[in-house]
Specification:
Blueprint: H1 2-73, H2 75-78, E1 82-83, H3 87-104, E2 108-115, E3 125-134, H4 136-147, E4 154-163, H5 172-177, E5 186-198
Parallel strand pairs: 1-5
Antiparallel strand pairs: 2-3, 3-5, 4-5
Length: 202
């Protein structure tokens, strides 16, 4: 009799385990499914917010285009930019402007080279490397002219090398080209400058 009761309890326990096991599996699957659905909902919400931000940005494009067009057509704004359709044309303008400044400062131009530009820059820059000989006062004068220039000219790099002057180096022809006081040392300067350029609005 006792063995029958034990057997019955064992059967009941086995039957309960067989019934509970599928329920546990179903519960685990349901939990995983709900978690995936929640993750998908969160992803959809994030994508919707991102799409809304992009739509707002796209909506501002017409106003930005109008603002850029207004800025390009504003004469008071244009004085800060070299007016050129291409980088080589802007380079020629910057080169002419800087060489005129060098001569006006009393220095002697040696060389000028337009450096390659970067097409990704906005607004685009035009870079120039010049080398000239001058005194300290002439260099200060030139830097002041570059700082106050319109369109903008910005000094990027500068290297200065002292040049010892003997009596043979300072001849009458040199004095006529670039008058230098006897008590001032002659400098050889290499200057990298850049300016911005903008195409004319047709």
């Amino acid at each position: 009799m006792r063995s029958k009761a034990v057997a019955r309890r064992t059967c009941v326990a086995a039957l309960a385990a067989m019934l509970l096991l599928p329920l546990i599996v179903v519960a685990l699957v349901a939990e995983m499914w709900l978690r995936q659905i929640s993750d998908m909902d969160n992803g959809i919400q994030a994508d919707a917010e991102r799409l809304e931000r992009y739509q707002r940005l796209v909506a501002t494009l017409p106003n930005l285009r109008v603002a850029i067009t207004d800025a390009q057509s504003n004469d008071s704004f244009k004085i800060y930019y070299f007016d050129a359709d291409t980088q080589p044309i802007a380079g020629a303008q910057v080169q002419r402007e800087v060489q005129d400044m060098i001569r006006q400062a009393g220095a002697r131009p040696v060389s000028a080279q337009v450096l390659p530009g970067n097409d990704q820059e906005v607004p685009p820059r035009v870079r120039l490397r010049v080398q000239f000989q001058c005194t300290t006062d002439q260099l200060f004068d030139l830097l002041y002219r570059a700082e106050s220039a319109r369109p903008f000219l910005i000094v990027d790099q500068m290297s200065i090398r002292s040049q010892a002057r003997s009596g043979q180096q300072v001849n009458l022809n040199r004095r006529r080209q670039s008058p230098i006081a006897d008590n001032q040392e002659l400098l050889t300067v290499r200057l990298d400058l850049f300016g911005y350029f903008m195409s004319s609005v047709k």
